[in-house]
Amino acid sequence: MSLPALSAPLSDTELARHLALGDEIGVLPRIFEDDINIAVMRRRLSAALQQSVLAQCQAERAWQLAWLGQPGDDLRADLLKRLPAAEAAEALVEDVQLLAEAMAYLFDTDTVGIRLRLLDAAMCPRFHVDNLPVRLVTTYHGPGSEWLPEEAVNREGLGAPSAEKPEIVRDPSAIQRLVAGDLALLKGGGWEGNEQHALVHRSPALIEGQKRLLLTIDPA
User: How far is CA 178 from each of CA 68, 88, 117, 139, 200, rounded to the nearest angstrom?
Assistant: First the structure.
């Protein structure tokens, strides 16, 4: 049986209980706080980066690049070789490398897993949690990821859908949305002590003809 919807919109205090939000890089390490399961740094993409991104989005078909290793010169060379508009890729490659190095530093690892994808449909349209410890998510172009505050989640509805399961979303008005440029660290169920509180999120719906350029980075 589904739980009733929340009777009123979430307050700023309720929303902030598990969210760290700011305009400076210093907000991201707050993901290490026990109560925080999403840390978001708001940022605006430079004009050069926007131009580089748009060039990669001109491809007729969806594409994706996957890379695992140290975020150094090999990553840079591989991206420059494999991106569809390599002649305009410099600014995007520089940003991806910077974020990969930041993730490696923040989580004290030599190895990161990177996926850069041009999408023309929602990748994971159902609300879900990740079983890994943490993931960096940023959208360069198109709508950003959607997530739910804890107070708006019915976790009994997570997992494979079935007729017996309740709705995951208690209050559709509580759905939060990242925007292009945001850097978000999402804490998953693989984070020790966070097994029952992994961030619930999903890919945004795309209208016909819309594209989304998404980067994810996992410390390995």
Answer: 26, 26, 17, 8, 13
In angstroms, the CA 98 to CA 54 distance is 19
CB neighbours of 215 closer than 8 A, spacing ≥ 6?
Answer: 96, 99, 114, 115, 116, 117, 136, 137, 138, 139, 140
Average confidence (pLDDT) per 10 residues, the chain, 220 residues: 39 74 96 97 97 96 96 95 96 98 97 97 85 97 95 89 87 95 97 94 92 97
Residue 179 in 3-state DSSP? coil
Of the candidates 177, 114, 105, the residue with the CA atom closest to the CA atom of residue 147: 177
CA 15, CA 152: separation in Å to the nearest integer?
10
Residues whose CB falls within 8 Å of the CB of residue 88, separated by 6 or more in sequence, listed in order: 51, 52, 55, 56
Given the DSSP bridges, would you call strands 200-202 and 146-148 parallel, antiparallel or unpaired?
A: antiparallel
Report the distance separating Cα 66 and Cα 159, nearest Å. 26
Is residue 112 within 8 Å of 101, Cβ to Cβ?
no
Cβ–Cβ under 8 Å, residues 115 and 203: no
Type and span of the H or E element at 148: strand 146-148
pTM surpassing 0.85?
yes
